[in-house]
Specification:
Distance between the termini of chain A: 16 Å
Number of strands of chain C: 0
Radius of gyration of chain C: 25 Å
Helix content of chain C: 55-70%
Shape of chain A: elongated
Chains: A mainly alpha, B mainly alpha, C mainly alpha, D mainly alpha
Strand content of chain A: under 5%
Largest interface: C-D, 98 and 89 residues
Largest sheet of chain A: none
Number of domains of chain C: 2
Distance between the termini of chain C: 64 Å
Oligomer: heterotetramer
Number of domains of chain A: 1
Shape of chain C: globular
Strand content of chain C: under 5%
Helix content of chain A: over 70%
Largest sheet of chain C: none
Radius of gyration of chain A: 18 Å
């Protein structure tokens, strides 16, 4: 994929917008359609596009496989952490009212960020493992 | 003012939809891959762009129009690139185009 | 036959024809592309049915992610589907189940009418009201504890509210499902890295018995 | 006949379901079976969303000036189901890759033949 000049330039132009759009979808999930899952998938699609055009080496140096594999667990940890935090603050497990005055808002945003990290990391690890297989052939 | 925007909107959407139909018919009728890609290109760029511009005229407030503008920009960048990538891949994988002096095309009875 | 029903029928016809094309096609690459188109048409139809969140997910996940995964598998496997004799029993079984299902839908509420039990149920009203009621109640009022007077979350998007706040526990389970799926793929595929690419040289691939692919 | 237009959606959903069901049963290629499974799943999603639709209602995002909303509960169920569906399809495809490595083929009858032989 090295000699596709047009594709390289267009992807260089598009990838920032894709990632920005993923974050917009993530944090706009309360007011418009959107949320953790869609944002995670869009973010992973942006990284995959980068990996496809600029090669697996460039993608793996940009986002380390080690980091992504820890991200898989980190997102779930954040989710359960919010649950435990609301339990420590006196409410029930995952009851966001205990998180302070505007607890529901913060709780939902934190939880959606946890889902975003897990979904994005899982999709990127799956892409890396498939790309690793194709490269080994 | 609204009446004019409404009419302008429909003036853009109807030709846009017509171009999409023409692109679709072209996709079916043309003899081989490269001319079909040309027809598909029409639907992508012109048809979609006209429909989007028409919707922009008819959109209720400014935020919707700006979002449609961003979609138009995105479409204008991606669909020609997609067509380029497709044709480049076809050409490099040895799918040579049907030239004028190649005699009758794949189906009989169709003039090239 | 209002305009909306026309769009509805055209979209459904496209969906059905794509599904039948997927069933009949031999070439796996074309089937992968058709699956992407099928998910995108499903997403368009979901948008037409006033469910933008689900349409968003279906488009991003169905058309985007599963097509990429299937194509990646086809790259690694690059197999071609061999024509095989299809037993007519499968067709008979399918038609039979289809007939029974259609008979089952005869007394379902028709599409979109307002007296359907799903919409007149008070629970739906509570979830909808919970979204726009401003948050003014005092601390410690656990959300969902007494569904009687309804509970205020104050977030306009009801779907995200129900997904993250009322059904937070289920979404946690669902994130755990994605976590395990990612782990599963890693374990299944990471194993391939340690084996030599050439399966014919037989070293104790599986301890004890002789590997089938010798 | 009962109002055909009203129940037309359900019948098309059943057609999609049966096509997916047929692909899973009749086709021998493993990847084709997984694709059949995802067709079946999409039809189930569409069935749930069709139940949740309300005539003249807008998307379940509360805004001024709109009173009738479509049912948010079915959307939430389907959001979860879509993502779980893709997770299972990804795992299935990874297994197909491993099966192809071990058996050298992904046609179900050849795999069974090798199993009986070994």
């Amino acid at each position: 994929m090295k000699n596709h000049v047009i594709l390289r330039i267009v992807t260089k132009l598009l990838i920032p917008y894709i990632l920005l759009y993923a974050f917009y979808v993530q944090w706009h999930g309360d007011f418009g359609p959107g949320g953790g899952f869609q944002a995670g998938v869009i973010f992973a699609a942006g990284i995959m596009l980068y990996g496809l055009i600029f090669g697996l080496q460039a993608a793996e140096s940009a986002i380390r496989p080690r980091l992504v594999q820890s991200g898989v667990a980190l997102g779930l940890l954040l989710y359960i952490g919010v649950g435990i935090a609301s339990m420590l603050l006196g409410g029930g497990f995952l009851d966001y009212d205990a998180l302070g005055h505007d607890g529901q808002h913060h709780g939902i945003l934190l939880v959606e960020t946890g889902v975003f990290i897990t979904v994005a990391s899982v999709m990127i690890t799956i892409f890396y493992s498939f790309a690793e297989l194709i490269r080994r052939q | 003012m609204d009446g004019v925007r409404e009419v302008l909107g429909w003036l853009c959407i109807v030709p846009g939809a017509m171009f999409c139909v023409i692109g679709g018919i072209g996709l079916l009728r043309f003899p081989e891959f490269y001319s079909r890609m040309h027809a598909a290109g029409i639907t992508d760029t012109l048809g979609a762009a006209l429909v989007l511009i028409g919707l922009m005229f008819q959109s209720a407030d400014w935020t919707v129009a700006v979002k449609l503008l961003v979609i138009l920009f995105f479409l204008y960048v991606t669909s020609p690139t997609a067509a380029h990538a497709l044709i480049h891949a076809a050409y490099t994988s040895g799918h040579d185009p049907l030239l004028a002096d190649d005699g009758p095309p794949v189906q009989e009875g169709d003039k090239p | 036959m209002s305009g909306e029903q026309l769009i509805d029928i055209v979209l459904l016809a496209l969906l059905a024809s794509t599904a039948i094309a997927i069933a009949r096609l031999r070439n796996l690459l074309a089937t992968a592309m058709l699956t992407g188109i099928f998910s995108l048409l499903g997403a368009c139809w979901m948008l037409f049915l006033d469910a933008p969140d689900v349409a968003f997910t279906e488009a991003a996940v169905g058309a985007g992610m599963s097509t990429i995964l299937i194509l990646a598998t086809l790259c690694v496997v690059n197999a071609e589907e061999k024509p095989s004799r299809e037993s007519p029993i499968a067709l008979v079984a399918v038609l039979l189940t289809g007939g029974v299902l259609v008979y089952g839908t005869l007394d379902m509420p028709s599409y979109g009418d307002r007296e359907a039990p799903a919409t007149t149920n008070p629970i739906t009203r509570i979830y909808l009201d919970s979204a726009n009621a401003p948050v003014e109640h005092e601390e410690g009022h656990a959300a969902g504890s007494d569904p009687g007077d309804g509970f205020a979350v104050g977030i306009p998007n009801t779907v995200t509210t129900v997904l993250a706040s009322f059904r937070g526990y289920d979404t946690m389970g669902e994130t755990a499902v994605i976590f395990t799926a990612g782990l599963g793929v890693l374990m299944v595929l990471a194993g391939a890295r340690h084996r030599r690419p050439d399966p014919s040289k037989e070293i104790d691939l599986k301890p004890g018995d002789e590997g089938p692919s010798a | 006949m009962t109002d055909v237009l009203g129940l037309f959606n359900y019948w098309i959903v059943i057609v999609l379901m049966m096509t997916g069901f047929y692909i899973v049963i009749a086709r021998h290629n493993l990847i084709k079976k997984l694709i059949g499974l995802s067709v079946f799943q999409v039809s189930v999603f569409l069935l749930y969303i069709t139940i949740g639709v309300v005539d003249g209602g807008t998307a379940p995002i509360v805004a001024e000036g709109y009173e009738v909303y479509s049912n948010p509960l079915t959307s939430v169920l389907i959001l979860t189901a879509i993502v779980v569906g893709v997770a299972t399809i990804a795992l299935g495809l990874a297994l197909v890759v491993r099966i192809q490595e071990e058996y050298g083929t992904i046609e179900e009858d050849e795999i069974q033949a090798q199993d009986h032989k070994a």
